[in-house]
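INFO  loader      accepted 1 record
INFO  loader      residues=91
INFO  predictor   begin
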Amino acid sequence: MEVVTSLVVSSDLFRPPFRQMVRRTSSLYRFLFHTVTIGVRALVIDGTGRVFLIKHSYMAGWYLPGGGVEVGETLMTALARELLEEGTSAL
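INFO  predictor   done
INFO  writer      dumping tokens
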């Protein structure tokens, strides 16, 4: 016996009232269950006055090195980890 499953989506489902309901539901979900992400950044200047900046592949422009703090990690540990990760990838 062959079981065939398929999903047929009618364009009627995506009329504005349905979209508005989905948007409100997802906003409520994000409000109730979104966790706060804490991040760290560093301004690193060497002895000659050069500033250490990072250019990400997913965003335009140059940024100070940094990133998110993992659960159970101190701010200083997170900053050291991010500087090591981004510093070695810049070489």
